[in-house]
Amino acid sequence: MPTVQDLAAQLVGEIPGLPMLFARNYVNQALDSISRDKLWSWNVNEGVIIVPQLITTGTVTVTNFDNTVQFDAAAQTALNAAAVANPPLASRQFRTMGGPIYNLVAYDTVTGIGTLDRIYIANTAANQQYQIYKCYYGPPSNDGVTPVTDFLRYLTINDPINGYTIAGQRLTMSREKLNRRDPMRGAQGQPYYTASYRPTPNQMNSDGSIPRNADSGIMQYEWWPHPVFAQGYIVQYERQNLALGFADYLPNQCPPALLRYKAQEFAMRWAQQNMGRIPELKGVNWPLLLIEVEKKYNFELVGAKRNDNEILTDILRPGSAGIMDFFGPIDSNWAQSHGVAGWN
């Protein structure tokens, strides 16, 4: 397979005056455009998600309309131990018994003070029972610690301990439906559904603005019922298309001709815009050439999709499970221990 440098160099040779930097960017833009057209096999990957154990040790003091909470000595002992564990304590959720859920965005191991993502809206109270667990999840990881940087969305979440897979319609529940089904989020245990929560980050700056960094905008999902037992899950997910380096190779499943024609579209539009200042670009019917390249691209795209669909035969796309959004051994024992959709 060619590299980005190979295709960029070919593009420079075809379009007079095209800078190499532009050519490289057009190759990456072409790959990004193609990747968004369907779920390609080269954008499917696998990782793991670690669910932490529920923490309820000790008590907490909460203050109405304040975004900080004070844990007692027993709670501090438990939380200090969890502060060095995975996933990070500051990525977990906090609630007093029966109350709404808050994101715990910071915890001081010296003072035992926790910081919430918004003000506490219930009454001021001391020595309250509480729960800290994790119900909002984003990217999986490969090592159990560092989240992957190319996560786009879940494809399946496999529970290898209890023999259950979240897939199909159970993977794409709307938050509106979940709010109607369980507004108080009282269901806890083995998760059977995921619902979209919101993109990262989970906190705001003091002036109300949202901090932006490399991880901003990655969608998080609420697992429901909320998982409260320590366990690992195997996640199959769709990757974002990250920009390739100059010497990086293209995915083996991506036909070079498909990428070349798409990159030519970007380059020819550049040529149309720069005809006035580059003599070699004058006298060429760029609109006609662009139409021809688009035809060639569409022809190649049909064949590429067909070939890739023959490779990617084992992916359950969201919502494709139809009226039976479960898969597995369908006997009475399995059906009684799993959430099963009905027949319409």
Task: Provide a descriptive summary of the structure in words.
This protein has 344 residues and is α+β, with helices and mostly antiparallel strands. The protein has three domains: 4-36 and 243-311, no CATH class; 44-50 and 138-203 and 215-240, no CATH class; 53-133. 27% of the residues lie in helices and 21% in strands. It has seven helices and 14 strands. The protein has helices spanning 4-14, 20-35, 73-82, 175-181, 256-273, 286-311, 332-336, and strands at 44-51, 60-62, 68-71, 93-96, 102-107, 113-116, 125-128, 130-133, 136-137, 151-159, 164-166, 193-199, 219-224, 231-239. The strands form three sheets. A seven-stranded antiparallel beta sheet has the order 7-2-3-6-5-4-8. Strand 2 (60-62) and strand 3 (68-71) form a beta hairpin. Helix 1 (4-14) packs across helix 2 and helix 5 (256-273) runs antiparallel to helix 6. It is elongated, with a radius of gyration of 26 Å. The two termini are 48 Å apart. Residues 318-328 have low confidence and may be disordered.
